[in-house]
Amino acid sequence: MYLFTETILSSCPHEDYCRLMTILSLIALFFQTIVAYTLVKEWKTTKSDYTKFLTIIRTSHIFYNLLGSTIGEFRMFLPRKTAVCHGIIRFFGDYACGVSLNIFITFISVESFSVVYAFNGQYNIICRKVNFHKNNLIQLISFGGFIINIFAIFICFNYALLSRDEAIDLWYVPDEELNLYLKEKYALLAFGGPKQYILFVALFFKSLNYIIFFIHYIFILKMMVEFIKKLGEHNKTTSIKNDYTTQLKHHIVNSLLPVIFLYTPVLHTFIMIIFFYEEKYYWYTKPTTNIMVFSVIVYAIVSALYIIFFKYKSLKKQKKVSLKNSKFNKKITAKVQSN
């Protein structure tokens, strides 16, 4: 976290960029703390499995925010497959820098898992009429694939890391711009060279993770939509149908946010690494080199604000229904007394 001057927390090489990231990280941390506090209170009141799961996930967002803004504070140099850490982790060496970035990248896979698992849990409760965590064999196989993929991604990225000497020879010595970073005390990480194939294995597992996400998500979405339509066909209670429709819309928005702010930047990074790695594309790739780190922080802000907005609307609706019921009860009481 760059506090507008070099400190033990940061030795940022690009002041304007680091100031922007620090401001965004502090904004994200503020809203994330509010969301975590709100969810903890709600979980203590309702003892809901869904709320408990959401509380754990949203609290973990605080850790990932600190990892990106204070612990690691990464500066990437795509399409050159290298980066420096100028946060606290720089004191623990290059390998710690690499592992911390890999954890940060793995966050995107963990987030996709949590989005689908939360949606799947609501499907279990609403459509299957079972417990939030009560999954059938197909669901368990899908989530098992998710978890195996997440571990495979993390392990492959760690094995794909180059040593400092290999990284310097491959990326820093031939490049005058990157050569400047060797004059300061930064921890650095790099991929490519003799371990290029491991990096592509990691990217394969990352792609597989997205495929599982979309297949599982679309299947549940289809089942939920069909279930809500059947409620209307059988003239079930309108308020129940409206509640289910509201929850469905909430989950759709909740899942679109990572698609926009996480998956799209990751896809952009993949394209840079695989297709636009030549020097003639630097005019485009250099200005967008840190889009993935930037997008994760923006996602943290937007998703937290959406949760606050949704909770506010739900609370407002509950108060409106409560007030309506109170007025109705008063009318009934007055009518009984008059008779």
Can you tag this structure with a few keywords?
elongated, 339 residues, transmembrane, transmembrane helix, mainly alpha, 3-stranded antiparallel beta sheet, 7TM GPCR, serpentine receptor class x (Srx) family-containing protein, 10 helices, 74% helix, Rhopdopsin 7-helix transmembrane proteins
As for the number of domains, it is: 1
**CATH class designation:** Mainly Alpha
Given helix and strand content, the structural type is: mainly alpha
SS strand fraction: under 5%
Transmembrane segments: 20-40, 61-78, 98-119, 140-162, 197-220, 256-277, 289-310
Keywords: Membrane, Transmembrane, Transmembrane helix
Protein name: 7TM GPCR, serpentine receptor class x (Srx) family-containing protein
Can you put this structure into words, describing what you see?
With 339 residues, the protein is mainly alpha-helical. The chain has one domain (15-323): Rhopdopsin 7-helix transmembrane proteins (Up-down Bundle). The chain is 74% helix and 3% strand. It contains 10 helices and 3 strands. It has helices at 15-46, 49-71, 94-126, 137-159, 164-172, 176-179, 196-233, 238-274, 282-285, 291-338; strands at 74-76, 82-85, 187-190. Strands 1-2-3 form a 3-stranded antiparallel β-sheet. A hairpin with a 5-residue loop joins strand 1 (74-76) and strand 2 (82-85). Helix 4 (137-159) runs antiparallel to helix 7 and helix 8 packs antiparallel against helix 10. It is elongated. 32% of the residues are buried. The model has no long low-confidence stretch (mean pLDDT 83).
